[in-house]
Design a protein that fits this description.
alpha+beta, 16 helices, five-stranded mixed β-sheet
């Protein structure tokens, strides 16, 4: 029988509390220690629950062991979290005096948050949360506990987040909780999806989009959908922003046009730009629902605000519009996977981290830009037995797409590439098939079909040569299908491509890599002579 959940299970009611929730002032900062799981925690809860029930009798409608100490195998603070259900948490006289007689002290009162109350016991340490029947927050506590219990990988990811959050030193528990909040929300997104809670319910889509500013002082701002007719203005905006935000990268007209195309992207509804009285494009943004879902369904948030009008509220208003539209897209998508709204930029992008955090997005992924010169000795690697290296060709295009989809399906944020997406990307002028290499098995035919098992796809971004001090090649996609990993195929392919780059007169090679790449590529790239020269960050919300 499917589980039923209270209305609002996915609504965490983010935002500042209506008033001061603390009774007697906030807790003092303390050192937070994460200790290995102890089976004694369950016994401790049983004893505590017995005393609470003895004190409250039938007034205790439910007593649940929640939090990390309720999850076998999970490292935790040595604090027992208990959820107590009473008929009316606001009627404190019905239960607080009896609990005070047991040594509990009322510390938190939140009338606007389901009338939540929290009492603490000093020895043993207990956080006793009080809710009414049908509480969404209490249901979340149980769902999170049960999900971690059933999913060891999630349990370890959460334990690591707790250790990292605690390592920052003495602090208030609320600050510790905030540092691990994005991991909690990511796990909740998977738990909600696993429990069958529809994305339409989880996305919390607004009925209407927020208003955008119509002027800045005496400068009017006319908001309209992004269109191809505005391409010159968008290109000028991208250039002005790029000089500050990504001074060694160039956004081309081709890329802007590509950004207006997608099987589930409608520029008329999913994009907006601000034009001043002289016709200049001063800001632009979009919310793009991915054409396909992978482990998650993503809405990418791309935006630009002209440096002349930054820090005047336009970026905040634009991002709020994008987030609202993104949630509408997720709610209407019909997808069941966890949803994510994400934006990315250089780690040194001025103001981006502040803008993202103010909008409720947190850093979830870091990307390294690696480079190596091509002068001097290049690495030599043996070609693994059973494969041959060939340049990319149209006849192997579909096999290459299949290899990319296989190679990256366990990578964070990847969604399967459709044929249309593949063809659009392959048509870009920067794609360099002659500098790309495929690892191919099989000779062709029914008995020995050809298969692409590894690839390095290259770009020649000539517009950036001057910005980077000379001609270079970009290894835009490096992948090996999973059943060929661990055989040295990636390093052999890259070594082959580096030689092709040098023979083509290029002076250096550049690539981007996920800092948490599951294939362990960082060690390989270092051995091949690559070193970090820049870093980017993805900020996100989950639902």
């Amino acid at each position: 029988m499917p589980q039923t959940f209270p209305e609002g299970i996915a609504d965490f009611q983010d935002g500042a509390p209506a008033g001061d929730p603390w009774v007697g002032g906030p807790s003092a900062p303390e050192s937070i220690e994460i200790v290995p799981f102890s089976p004694l925690w369950a016994d401790r809860f049983v004893a505590l629950a017995g005393r609470i029930r003895g004190a409250l009798g039938d007034s205790a409608l439910g007593i649940e062991h929640v939090g990390s100490t309720a999850v076998p195998g999970l490292a935790a603070k040595e604090v027992i979290d208990i959820d107590l259900t009473v008929a009316d948490p606001a009627a404190e006289a019905d239960y607080v005096p009896a609990l005070e007689a047991l040594g509990y002290v009322l510390r938190v009162r939140e009338p606007e948050f389901e009338e939540h109350r929290m009492l603490r016991l000093a020895e043993p340490r207990v956080n006793l949360h009080v809710f009414g029947p049908g509480s969404a927050e209490a249901a979340r506590h149980r769902l999170f506990r049960d999900w971690l219990h059933a999913h060891p990988a999630e349990r370890e990811a959460y334990a690591e987040a707790k250790r990292l959050a605690a390592a920052e030193g003495p602090d208030r528990v609320m600050a510790y909780n905030a540092r691990k909040a994005i991991v909690v929300r990511e796990i909740f997104a998977r738990a909600f999806a696993g429990a069958g809670i529809p994305l339409a319910q989880r996305a919390l889509a607004p009925a209407s989009l927020p208003e955008l500013p119509v002027s800045l002082g005496e400068t009017p701002l006319h908001w309209r959908p992004v269109s191809r007719t505005a391409l010159p203005g968008l290109l000028a905006l991208a250039q002005a922003c790029g000089e500050i935000d990504h001074p060694r990268s160039v956004v081309t007209a081709e890329e802007l046009v590509l950004g207006l195309v997608g099987e589930r992207f409608d520029p008329a509804r999913d994009s907006v730009m601000a034009v001043d009285g002289a016709g200049r494009v001063l800001a632009a943004g979009s919310a793009r629902l991915a054409d396909t879902a992978g482990a998650e369904i993503e809405v990418a948030l791309d935006g630009m605000v002209h440096p002349e009008i930054r820090r005047r509220g336009v970026g905040r208003a634009l991002l709020a519009w994008q987030l609202a539209r993104g949630r509408q897209l997720l709610a209407a998508s019909g997808e069941t996977a966890p949803g994510i709204l994400a934006l990315s930029g250089r780690a040194e992008h001025p103001g981006l981290a502040e803008l993202a955090r103010a909008a409720g997005l947190a850093p979830v992924r870091w990307w390294q830009e690696l480079a190596r010169p091509l002068a001097g000795e290049l690495p030599e690697r043996e070609t693994p037995e059973g494969v041959r290296f060939v340049p990319f060709s149209a006849r192997l295009s579909e096999r290459t797409r299949a290899a990319v989809n296989d190679a990256f399906r366990d990578h964070w944020g990847f969604h399967p590439i459709t044929r249309k997406e593949w063809e659009r990307e392959g048509a870009l002028a920067e794609f360099a098939p002659e500098l790309s290499r495929l690892a191919v098995t099989g000779r062709g035919g029914i008995r020995d079909p050809r298969r692409v098992v590894g690839l390095v796809l290259s770009e020649r971004r000539t517009a950036e040569f001057a910005l980077r001090g000379g001609p270079f090649g970009t290894l835009s996609t490096v992948g090996v299908v999973r059943d060929w990993r661990g055989r040295g195929l990636s390093s052999a392919l890259i070594a082959e491509v580096l030689r092709a780059y040098r023979e083509a007169g290029l002076a250096s090679a550049v690539l981007d890599v996920d800092s948490a790449n599951p294939s362990g590529a960082h060690v390989m790239y270092a051995r091949l002579g690559f070193a970090e020269q820049d870093r980017s960050v993805t900020y996100a919300q989950y639902c």
